[in-house]
Amino acid sequence: MSDTERNKQVVVDYYQTAFGGNPQKAIADHFGPVYIQHNPDAQDGPEAFTGFVNWLRGEYPNLRLDIKRVIAEGDMVVTHSHLDLEPGNSDNPGRALADFFRLENGKVVEHWDVIQDVPTQAANDNGMF
Length: 129
Description:
- InterPro entries: Cyclase_SnoaL-like, NTF2-like_dom_sf.
- It holds the Pfam family SnoaL.
- With 129 residues, this protein is α+β, with helices and mostly antiparallel strands.
- It contains 3 helices and 5 strands.
- Helix 1 (3-19) runs antiparallel to helix 2 (23-30).
- The chain is globular.
- The mean pLDDT is 96.
């Protein structure tokens, strides 16, 4: 398996494990020695990440993360995902996420994201995913 394919698997497992309710395991298995966060609303480091995931799951205990696409080049992995905060609630269809992860030696060390609410109505029929 190439490093790029391995990096994709690392990110998918990390992301699904964390948002599936076990951010501590995701960190233990997949974080590098540093975690640099570029979201201006989030702090660096594994403790901040764990706190965020635990808070989000506390607010939305049934949330579901569905990774739609994974693209990788070198040490960068990009995911396009649907974060459904309240599955079945048509008034809150969730968020579209584009997450960019940088890895070193097969471990996540840096993260950027772009987040957009999924609208209940759109100007076209193409969908966001």
